[in-house]
Every structure is written in C-alpha cells, then in structure tokens.
C-alpha cells in the first residue's frame, strides 16, 4: 500500500502486518475517493478499514486546522474504540480526534467540538444536541463514515443522523458500513451515495447501488407470441434461425434452465448454466467458458443481469419475461452495439401482462416478431389434424342419425309391429288365459291325478 511513513509507523506500532479479506476488497476503492456501501461485521477489521484511509487523507494535507473527518456510530463503546484506534495509528502524524458519545461530560465535549480536531467520532444523540446548542456546522468535512447503519436504523436514530448530515455543508466522500442489507439500508444508500460501489455482498445482492441503464434507442427489441404448448419448439426454432453469435438466455427457475440445457446439448449446441446455488469457483469457471468463447449459450436462473460481468453479447433471450422493468434494463445493458444485437422475449399466454407492463414502464414498445418457419409449419399441421378429426366425428354422427330414421320409417310403412310379451297371470302363459291343458301340467297336478 502506498501510505506515508507516518501512517506506516502507526500500523507497525499496532502490529498491523497484513490486510484482512475485507480490507483487501474495500481499501482500493476507498483510497480512490469513491463512495461505497460496505458489508462488514463489527470489530477491529471493520474499524481499520475506514480509519487507515482517513488518516492517509489527513496526513497528505498541510496545516489542517479544522474537522475534515466525521464518523457517526450507534453506541458509546464503539465510538471510544474508534477514537483510541485513530489516536494510536495517527500518533506519528499527530492527528487529533475527539469522541462525542453518550458516556462523556457535556461541557467537556462542547469544548472538544469547539477545538475542531481533525477527526470527530460521535453518537447521533449527544452529537446532534451539541451541534444544535452551538449552532455548529461542518464546512470542511471531506470524509464521512456512517458506521453500522443497520443498527442505527433498528435503534430509531435515523432522524438524528439525517439532521447531522444537513450540517455537513462541504462536498465529501461517504462510506456506509452495515452487517445486514435491508430495504431501509438500500434506500438510504441510494439517496446518500454518489455513484457508490457495493463491497462485500453476495452476487445476488450486488445490483444494489447499480442503477439500471437506459435502454439504448438503437437496440433491436422484439417479442414472439408463443402458441399454446409450443414454447420449447419456438425457442429451438428461433435459435436455429439465429446466427452463431454468443447468446445469454434468462429463465425464471433453475428447473427451467436445467431443462433447456439438456435440450441444447441433445441438439449438439454448446451451452453452460449459472444459478444462485453454484459455488463461487464453479460460477467463475462457467462464466469464463462463456466469455472465452468455449460455449455459445449461457443459461441463467436466479441471478440478476446486474451481477453478471459480461459484455459484447449479440443476443439476449428472455425465455421467461421478467416481471421487473429494471431487470429488463439490466439485461439490455449486456447487449453489444451493432445491427445484429437484439433482445428477444418469448411471450406465452401467462406472460402477456408482463410484456404489457414492460411496454408501459420502458416507454419503448418492442416489436412483435414473426413465428419461426418451423413453428408455423407445425402449427399448420396441428390445425389440419384438428380439422380432420372434427370432420370425422361429424360424419359419424350423421350416419348414426339417418339409420334410426330409416328404421322408424320402415316400421310405419309395414303397418305392423313385433308382438310384445305380456307377463300378467304368469300361469296362463303369453296370452294370460288359463286352459284345461295348463291345469294338468306341473308336479302337483300330476300327483293329484295319480292318487285321485
């Protein structure tokens, strides 16, 4: 690290010989003067991550006579620890610091504030009270740290933090540290960081602070209305008609990605896939295979386009239409410039509302594309088959109906009907009349006649 001898001596005094993983990720960005939202757990590693650049910045100046660094932290013990770290690391550079915390004496802290040390570390409550009492504003702060933002939010201290920030009148670099990324943290970071970077977050969270790009006016955007139960057929026919350029395909689920991967490989296309459950090593390897040109198709599920470090892609296919317009914008940002570059969405019946929402939100209407020729042919064959089956069923009904009518007519023309059996008076037979012969039939009658 390119630090001054004074700061290096302070690090040596504290036996700081190696950077932690967090510091390796964050210090280059911070030392360049960029705003950042940094994920970090409480502790010395996190504190040193913002203290070292602050001291380097102060030591590089001449005749600093006012407060140039302000650190806001939620509790007294943390404020005191940061104060001690600054004093020890900045000892050889003669950098002064004051802690305005909940445990301090109010009158002593007022005097410390009036003395305008180069660094002030404070808790929101007591710091705001002193600033209001003294009508104090910061005119030369160029380095602002908001420490443990998630904790400040949970302790309901954000109104006080906002009032303190109103008193920082100078242009400054802003660093925000948090151990958890909540919606409140994200909203605050978006409002208070200027072109900030997100450091230490999972790939799925990296889109925070990255505002979606505007959709280029010259980008070719289209969609294909997919016939019922023909989505895969439409997809395969479309890529067969497309060029051999690299293509990224977004699906709504890992299951959908796995299915398309098998189909592509079965048809001798080179493909690889990315999803949220992959290890960092596998993700990097598969991404490298695509960027190096070893495979033509990259299938993506459960990962935002904002998290993909890809450029110069000729075609993006939305196998499933994204419901979020910002995600659509991120995907257009992956497409290279040129006439052949385009983004195509496959719109099934259930996707109609999503494509309508995109059209409304983007202010640009993607053009409806013709179905691929193969799909048109299959659709034609399907309709013809359906038409034949309908005509067959109609002819059967007609034949069955005419036969019955002919039988009825035949009966009427003969003027007679088949005899119907009568079942009343069963002993009398079909006519129902008993006869003398009938009486002498049967076992009982035979016995009577025998013994009579």
Poorly predicted regions are 425-440
The CATH topology annotation of the largest domain reads as Rossmann fold
In what order do the strands lie side by side in the largest sheet? 3-4-2-5-6-1-7
Terminal Cα separation, in Å? 140 Å
Q: What is the CATH superfamily of the largest domain?
A: P-loop containing nucleotide triphosphate hydrolases
CA-based shape: elongated
Strand content: 5-15%
Oligomer: single chain
Architecture of the largest domain, CATH level 2?
3-Layer(aba) Sandwich
Overall pLDDT, averaged?
85
Task: Give helix % range.
Answer: 40-55%
**Major beta sheet summary:** 7 strands, parallel
What can you see in these coordinates?
- The structure is a single chain.
- With 452 residues, the chain is of the alpha/beta class.
- It has two domains: 5-205, 3-Layer(aba) Sandwich (Rossmann fold), CATH 3.40.50; 220-376, P-loop containing nucleotide triphosphate hydrolases (Rossmann fold).
- It has helices at 5-13, 21-31, 44-59, 76-89, 106-114, 124-134, 149-154, 158-165, 183-192, 231-241, 254-266, 280-291, 325-332, 352-362, 373-414, 436-439, 443-451, and strands at residues 36-39, 69-72, 97-100, 119-122, 143-146, 173-178, 197-199, 220-225, 247-250, 271-274, 297-300, 315-318, 342-347, 367-368.
- It is elongated, with a radius of gyration of 41 Å.
- Residues 379-413 have a biased composition (Basic residues).
- This is Superfamily II DNA and RNA helicase.
